[in-house]
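I am writing to request your help with a piece of structural work I have in hand. The matter concerns a single protein, recorded as an amino acid sequence and a row of backbone structure tokens. Could you please explain, in whatever detail you think fit, how the structure tokens follow from the sequence? Thank you for your consideration; the sequence and its tokens are set out here:
>
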Amino acid sequence: MHKLYSSGSTWEATLGYSRAVQAGNTLYISATAASGPDGKLVGDDLYTQTQYILHKLGPILNEAGFDYKDVVQSRLYVTNIKEWQEAGRAHGEVFGEIRPALTLLHVLPFLDPNMLIEIELTAVKS
């Protein structure tokens, strides 16, 4: 049985997805952008957007009974690979001691060209 978690975004119903899905002891969090509660993008640089997204995902983990320490894989989708170290710096601030598996992908621009990164997480409870 799957448990679905919603962010309340209208995109979820339109596209047919959930912010996160829990299957047993595993939580899968969909690609998340640095959009604030008002829908506007937070930050105009890769470090700030990465930092914002990672802090935004904490409450989603917590709502499902997980924590950052339960994250086993993170996937970062960046539009400017030349600045990958800025995303890595923000990621290391959160996951430096936890050290999940990491995928860093260079992608074409998102629908909003000011969106520089999206992040997905997979977490597993022991």
